Amino acid sequence: MGILEVKDVGKRFGGLKALSDVNLSVAENTCHAIIGPNGAGKSTLLNCLVGKLIPDTGSVMFDGQSVLGRSPHEINQMGISRVFQTPEIFSDLSVMENMMIPLFARRDGAYRLHAYHSVLSEAELVTKAEQMLADVNMLDKRNMHTASMSRGDKRRLEMAMCLIQEPKLLLLDEPTAGMARADTNNTIDLLKQIKDSRNITIAIIEHDMHVVFSLADRITVLAQGTPLVEDVPEKIKGHPKVKEAYLGETAHA
Amino acid sequence: MFGLQKKDTNLLLIVIALTMLAPFILNPFPTDSGLAQFNAGYPDLMQRFVIFGIFAIGFNILFGLTGYLSFGHAAFLGVGSYSAVWMFKLLSMNILPAIILSVVIAGLFSLLIGWISLRRTGIYFSILTLAFAQMSFALAYSVLTPITNGETGLQITLDDPRILGISQTADGSIPVTNLFGMEMRATTDLALGAWSFTFSMGYYVCAVLMILAFYMSIRIFRSPFGMMLRAIKSNQTRMNYTGLNPKPYTLAAFVISGMYAGLAGGLMASMDPLAGAERMQWTASGEVVLMTILGGAGTLIGPVLGAGMIKYFENIFSKINDNVLHTWFSFMPDGLENLMVGILHPFVGKGWHLTLGIIFMLVVAFLPGGLVEGGQRIGRMFGRKKPTDDTSAKTEPAE
Ligand SMILES: Nc1ncnc2c1ncn2[C@@H]1O[C@H](COP(=O)(O)OP(=O)(O)OP(=O)(O)O)[C@@H](O)[C@H]1O
Ligand SMILES: [Mg+2]
């Protein structure tokens, strides 16, 4: 029994079957990659896991509890953090403030009114935030306004914001898209190191096969809303069905 | 000092100094000079400056931090005034219980309205608050006449019970509002040469409360709560997926700003013990929006500046009529004098709204950060590092 169990999930948008009969089991402390051509339904699947969408059919269990019907903040409090395909950060706030908010959320829960003491007096949290920023090579940008940062930096920041929550399950939607090669490699190293040093399960959507094969313990190939194959990376590489799915896509394009 | 960072402490000290010395600062012109009409240092107006300052400081906690634009905050001010007058009628003329009740009732009332209105965001939220405020106005104006005394407004009378006080004084007149015996209307005059300054008890009570209100708002701005409110304005999606529930934070901000409005309303009634429905009208709600934007929404001191500016215009500019203009330009030949008066006429006296409107337009178009941004630009022009009226929304929690 995996930490994440997706059973018979289906989701339609009007006449479009975005997901059908999706079954997925992610074992604890592994990295599970979901790959597939554009429009395969990968992001839609993640949306069903974090409460952004409610599937029409099927069930999603996390850590033995159903996530369906819970709101996004409740699901996050259960231990799921998510990095979005287009970075979602607090763009009017500084880098450091962006880091403090997830720390408060983890320590104080979904709502706690601290209206009197200064944010700066939270020395312990500030230190934690600084360490995390150092891990993602952003400590020098701590006082910067995030609105003016590059897309790659925004992604790294968003990932740091998720990691600092020490989630049980980390969902990454194309975390290296828009990053320079060097930053991509740094991200791979960071994720590897986090995977080894902490109890964390990772589900990653990625088009960059280098990233996928460096990190994944298992890979699911999704095409037209249904899983084609699921296997260990070595088996996926030369799998005929996978080639077909991707070649099919190229043929369309 | 006071548990604040140095920059905020300085700002607070400046505000304390300015409010305490206001009777001097606002009366810079000798009493007999032609410019005396620009003096704003009389008790009634000074009280209005700080009372509306409190109103705007509170409004800024909601609008400046979360970006939720309420068009109904005058309702809370009105409720505060009615509560205070009822305390004067039933309990005693001491303003302390009256103000406490104003804040509590306004808080409960804003909890109800906020709870419903915050189901929506953006323009729908604004419309909901506007609708509620207009409903409250209509109720106060007619339906609830037994409580609000309808169009006449609620006043204190000689046969009110005042169980802890007296219904009427020994000579048969209505007792005056006081704080443990210190009368709100008491004033002391100080004549220095050609100048004259008035110190009013009522003003100093309001001023102390405004300083407290300002201090509380600094603490809120710098607190984790304040940071959450700015996060709500910035990105609610990220907020949700970070495990935070934005609703109760926004509601808390709404209630806090409602309580500030209640305090302002209670103080208004404490200075002049009557309450009328017009205090709740949408124009009054719009005024506090203008004050906040004019001064600089999301900055600490901006709302106070905006409130001061608008009240100054309303009370001083509106008094410049054609006679005054004629005396100003009497040194000119008649034709020219009439021309000048004709040109200025639409902008002063009853036309003060026009001048204010133009200033407001210019500020919004060219200084999106309001008067505070203007001050910062001037400060930068003179090469200083940072002007003291700097704000907050931009401060980062560094070490
Ligand atoms: N909210 C929505 N409303 C309607 N259709 C949607 C919605 N979200 C996604 N879709 C459609 O569902 C299909 C799957 O989209 P999804 O974003 O999950 O693909 P993806 O696998 O993440 O693709 P990519 O690799 O381009 O990110 C697409 O055809 C998309 O247009
Ligand atoms: Mg996608």
Automatic annotation (TrEMBL), chain A:
UniProt keyword list: ATP-binding, Nucleotide-binding, Transport
One MF term in the entry's GO annotations: ATP binding
Superkingdom, natural source: Bacteria
GO CC list: plasma membrane
Domain ABC transporter: residue ranges: 4-249
Annotated InterPro entries: AAA+_ATPase, ABC_AA/LPS_Transport, ABC_transporter-like_ATP-bd, P-loop_NTPase
CDD domains: ABC_Mj1267_LivG_branched
Entry protein name: Branched-chain amino acid transport system ATP-binding protein
UniProtKB/TrEMBL annotation, chain B:
One Gene Ontology CC term in the entry: plasma membrane
TM region(s), chain numbering: 12-29, 49-71, 91-116, 123-144, 201-221, 248-268, 288-313, 325-345, 351-372
GO molecular function: branched-chain amino acid transmembrane transporter activity
Keywords for this protein: Cell membrane, Membrane, Transmembrane, Transmembrane helix
Location relative to the cell: Cell membrane
CDD domains membership: TM_PBP1_LivM_like
InterPro entries according to UniProt: ABC_transp_permease (IPR001851), LivM-like (IPR043428)
Annotated membrane topology: Multi-pass membrane protein
Keyword Nucleotide-binding appears in the UniProt entry: no
Signal peptide per UniProt: none
Electron transport as UniProt keyword: no
Location, primary (coarse class): membrane
Annotated PANTHER family: ABC TRANSPORTER ATP-BINDING PROTEIN, HIGH-AFFINITY BRANCHED-CHAIN AMINO ACID TRANSPORT SYSTEM PERMEASE
Name of protein: ABC-type branched-subunit amino acid transport system permease subunit
Source species: Sagittula marina
